[in-house]
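Why run this: before we spend reagent on co-expression, it is cheaper to look at a predicted model of the complex and decide which construct boundaries make sense. The entries below are exactly what would go into the expression plan.
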Amino acid sequence: MGTYDDILNALSIRIREIIKRYVDVNTWEGLEEIRIREGRPLMVIRSGCDMMLAQRGLATLDVKRAYAVSHEDICETVELISESSIYAFEDELKNGYITLRGGHRVGLTGRVIMENGNIKTLRDVTCLNIRVTRELKGVSEKVIGYIYRPPHGVYNTMILSPPMAGKTTLLRDIVRNISNGGPGRPGLKVGVVDERSEIAGCYNGVPQNDVGIRTDVLDCCPKDLGMLLLIRSMSPEVICTDEIGRKPDVEAIQEACNAGVGIITTVHATDINELNRKPYVNMLVTEGLFDRYIVLGNSMGKGTVEAIYDGELNFLTEMPMRGDSS
Amino acid sequence: MMLKIAGAILIVASCSMGGVLYSNKYIYRLDNLKSLSICIEMLRSEIVYSHMPLPEASRIIGEKVKGPIADIFSDFADVLRSRKGYTAHQALEVALKNNAAKLSINEEEMDLFRTLGTMIGTSDTINQEKSLNLLSKQLELLINKAIKERDKNVKMYRNLGLLSGLGLAILLI
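The model came back. Tokens follow.
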């Protein structure tokens, strides 16, 4: 679980002081992002609205009074984020983000260096976005009953959701819930292929989020390779992965389904119709490989379960519901 | 007479001891440089093959190698892991300052050590390897120089110590 200190430790001394004055460990609830752009005001996003910070750590609307981020601030912050080890984060840099200790993610932009049509590395980083991660334990309680298949297994489940509707948060909690088990539900061995370090938030391979006691995490691994690797090596009963969409992902899922492993995954789509229009992924629907479709939306706030369908696309729920975090 | 002989032996012994102690400086210096060379080699393999972050890599080196140079790496790792906002360059300066008294290397060699601090961790694996290779080469030159100086000076200072002891003893007798 990410803490306030994990974020502070990643910031250059001057920015650290400002953030410290702005929020302390008791008041940082609601802090969503810290945005650092070279030569421009230091900004934070808190409870959905963005504001600039002045030298003394006060929120301000006046650009002139806001603290302007210097080149040194950026350089120091990048060095601290990478723990003075840029080389250890080469692959992450290519993807434009680094995961901090504690599971917080830092997005970076700057000048991209290309090689043979691929991104080789990112240099002259000028903009940083520190995204505060919060685990919401318990949000999967209401849906877990639809996913669990008695006596010992899960239905192949696909979570459909537009961006920022909480699908990764839900998936993470489902992973934890299945892995730990619950009343009347034995815990299952779960393998997680975490291509973008979002589910487990691994730092040096160690999950920073609570992903359950029977969970094995394959960090930073491409989904298609990872799923097959897990089946061969870790004998999982359930494989979870985030955001499928490419052809190799779909082929790997087809293979995994035929290997007797339960699959739980997410897809970017607003509803079933949109899912049917997606290339490759629609093959999974027509083949009937999935038994449950959970549609997320924002109708009652972030993370609302709008509908749950079974494999024949019949409704299993009556009305939208929201999982409560404990 | 007995007293004179005893006194002469004491003088010779202490003078030659002085020579040995002074000449040891060159031996320790060579030890330091060789140990630094081993540490840089290890650092390179940690960086290039296992992509180990710097604090962890330095800690491992500090544990595996013994001596004052390894202590610097341990200190370096501690400073970085304290997460008080030190960059690698600053952290190495702190570690060097803490251990300066234990070292026998000269200013030129110290500069090479500082160069390590300015380049480490700032680029991708390939460039880190290049920089470390370059550093290794320069260090090799310094080691060769230190070997020559040791061969020349150790013998000289030891003989000088012994001879001056003898000379003094003869004069006093």
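The mean pLDDT of chain B is 90. Residues 39 and 65 of chain B are 7 Å apart (CA to CA). Bring this page to Monday's planning discussion.
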